[in-house]
Write a structure and sequence with these properties.
With about 160 residues, the protein is mainly alpha-helical. The protein has helices at about 15-35, 45-55, 60-65, 70-85, 105-125, 130-150, and strands spanning about 5, 10, 85-90, 100-105. Strand 1 and strand 2 form a beta hairpin.
């Protein structure tokens, strides 16, 4: 509903698509964070584990690029995952200053469990949509990402 402030009309909060996207995103994200934190990891740690799951090994700078993050935050993230024994680190074969990270057996075993939590979280929030509606929503969001050149992976 349009409200007036003097002579100028302004749109209502609930008339904005961004309002509803954030409203739903906050709820979905908070519930997923609760689920993965019960397994001992944060959402950003889950994203890193999932990215690493698709690779044998990666340099932290490659992990940072894949996650849309910078080197500093990824370095801290890798340190937390090392402390939890979910990743291992070694020196790069050709450049002793560079590091390589990979999932440990514990990390590799945890990823499918966390992926199932992600699937269950999506199902809990979006089961009321048909498969066609879900595909259309995903496509609309992908198009928005493409049009605006967004590159950061949502992690927290």
């Amino acid at each position: 509903m349009k409200q007036t402030s003097g002579k100028k009309q302004i749109s209502g909060l609930e008339e904005h698509l961004g309002y509803w996207l954030r409203y739903v995103s906050n709820a979905v994200s908070a519930e997923f964070a609760r689920r993965v934190e019960a397994e001992g990891v944060t959402v950003s740690e889950w994203v890193a584990l999932r990215v690493l799951f698709g690779h044998d090994e990666m340099q932290p700078k490659e992990l940072a690029a894949a996650m849309g993050m910078t080197k500093g935050p990824v370095s801290r993230l890798v340190e937390r995952l090392l402390a939890k024994k979910l990743v291992a680190r070694r020196a790069h074969d050709c450049d002793g200053r560079a590091q390589i990270v990979r999932l440990t057996a514990n990390g590799r075993g945890l990823v499918p469990k966390l992926a199932a939590l992600a699937d269950a979280n999506d199902a809990a929030f979006f089961a009321h949509f048909s498969e066609e509606e879900k595909r259309a929503l995903v496509e609309a969001m992908r198009k928005t990402v493409e049009v605006h050149g967004l590159s950061a992976v949502p992690v927290e």
